[in-house]
Amino acid sequence: MTCELGWSDKPHEECGVFGIYAPGEAVARLTFFGLYALQHRGQESAGIAVTDGVMARLHKDMGLVSQVFNEENLAPLQGHIAIGHTRYSTADSSRPISAGPFLVESMLGPLALAHNGNLINTGQLRRKLFERGVGLSSSCDSEVIIQMLAGAQGDSMLDRIQDMMSMALGAYALTILTRDALYAVRDPWGFRPLSMGRLSSGWVVASESCALETVGAQDITEIGPGEIVMIDANGARTIQGRDPERSSLCIFEFIYFARPDSIIDGQLVHDARQELGRQLAREHPVEADLVMGVPDSATAAAIGYAQESHIPYGEGLIKNRYIGRTFIQPDDRLRKSGVALKFNPLAMGLKGKRLIVVDDSIVRGNTSAPTVELLRRAGAAEVHMRISSPPIKHPCFMGVDMATYGELIAHRMNLEQIRAHVGADSLGFLSQEGMLQALKRATGHYCTACFSGDYPFEQKAGGFLERELQACGVMSTGACL
Residues near 433 by Cβ (< 8 Å), separated by ≥ 6? Predict the structure, then answer.
């Protein structure tokens, strides 16, 4: 099994989804490259389902996209419709049975589904399926959704999707494959991004626009909250499956999750991250000789900080991009030096310098301290940590692995205690107001629950969220398995 070497201190996205309707094209091959562009959204498993209008075929396994697929297993995946999935597990353990896409046979023929997000009422929906006599092979909410679709009310798949949407509460961006159509579905809150674009021979949908551009799509647009896009031989059409709720796009798409070259909510992610860095410099200036980012996710914010502060930007850490996941279990000595395995300091350029080190977030705090120590050993005279997001004080229940209350360092410690824990000379977090100002959006446009504790479902569900989470132990464990 793949092993993390103990330095991960970032929120993790759950999945990337992809879908294509393109008669005459090698849809499985295009899906492979689309998933390759979405690899950053999940590295535990990958899968592709394809239909030729008669039957559906599926290949999925644990591992990276490039490890799961080769010419031999792509060749049988023939057809004109395909969906793909790359996964990071939050609502179920990392095991082959939970890898996506899920594929079942239904009254309407083959049905496959890829899901990004997390339902908060999975327990309630599982009970309803059990009462109908439906057996489940995993605790993954993606399986719950596909079984809901297979047994939902309605003569058409469109009716069944709308029926599912009336019951599902939570975050979901879906690609759905049937015998003759591709569907893309986004939850009414719009927690997860989902975009579509046009090919010369058809249409393609994906979690991020970067994947659409990778396969040559044009006329790229974002699918709105509560919308269903149906693509078949008659073209693409959009149906409002449910009325939009309170706008709640996960703000961490801009801070960390999305690829810098993606456009989300009408903004280029790279530009948004630079503006977060500029706002951070306005809120937390400090005299220093060099601004550097923790690679790679904080690079753009560090550049923005340097631009606003007029302090030179430079690289201080070189990242080993191939050490992050390995099948070799490290011994205790290597575990303790995990950050040193991942980063190597450019000591000649750091010696005697006062450094501003920009990072995108601090979750548990278990890598920031070793990073500061690494820079001091390289000769840094001062290390000032600057974080381009507010302190994370609350878990996420919408499909992001954000740790539990007990693990979140900002829930347990105040600013000075965190500074002392990481060993920095000073520490500054971007304010929530400054973050929203940098993204040019008013409060309420994004989900900021991990910072504020204001969960979008509370008002809508009338206390259901708290009851459901307490029932499955989430308030103390952070996961409902």
Answer: 443
